Amino acid sequence: MEQNAVYSRQLSENFDAHEFRCRGTNHHAQCACHGAVNVRVPLLMVLQNFRSSMGQPVTVMSGFRCDEYNKRVGGHLGSFHRIGMAADITSETIRHWCKKDSPASARFLAAIVVGICKRQGNVIWYPHKNFIHVDVGARVTEHLIRVADENGVLSPLEEGDG
């Protein structure tokens, strides 16, 4: 099947395959996967539920990453992006709450995502980069919501914060 036919394929009401492609191939670099697409159904369902509930467009900033591209962007070796089970997303609401950059904002934003995800995934809030990471690849833990600082160091969002 031709690559453009794959990219134009509608995966859900609001998402198409092109949004989840590996972004390692561009005018600066070419990775071996040539923009492969890999998105698992549970992730797609979580993101579609989020999109439908928010009533506004959601931009997938990073979906699938081949090993080469994941290494290039400094992703973790065991990243769920590598197996189509994670996405970094943004929207008008996410950008609004990222500007507030407080634990209370993180809890509010994460509560929206977690509620919509029906506790099926993990959320990492990147307030300094205006996006959240959602993955469906691990068991939900007691620290479902984590916050990344400017250096990417993760910490759990504690109940007493804010």
Number of strands: 6
Assembly type of the chains comes to single chain
The CATH architecture designation is: 2-Layer Sandwich
Helix percent reads 25-40%
Q: Name the beta content range.
A: 15-25%
Main pleated-sheet profile: 6 strands, mixed
Shape estimate: globular
For the record, give the distance between the C-alpha atoms at the N and C termini, rounded to a whole number: 51 Å
Secondary-structure element string: HHEHEHHEEEE
* CATH fold-level label: Muramoyl-pentapeptide Carboxypeptidase, domain 2
Notes on the structure:
This protein is an alpha+beta fold and 162 residues long. It has one domain: Muramoyl-pentapeptide Carboxypeptidase, domain 2 (2-Layer Sandwich). The protein contains five helices and six strands, in the order ααβαβααββββ. The protein has helices at residues 3-7, 41-54, 67-72, 92-100, 103-117; strands at 59-62, 86-90, 122-126, 131-135, 145-148, 154-156. A six-stranded mixed sheet has the order 1-2-4-3-5-6. It is globular and about 40 Å long.
Q: How would you summarize what this structure contains?
A:
The chain has 162 residues and is of the alpha+beta class. The chain contains five helices and six strands. The protein has a single domain (3-156), classed as Muramoyl-pentapeptide Carboxypeptidase, domain 2, CATH 3.30.1380.
List keywords for this structure.
globular, alpha+beta, Muramoyl-pentapeptide Carboxypeptidase, domain 2, 162 residues, 5 helices, single chain, 6 strands, six-stranded mixed sheet
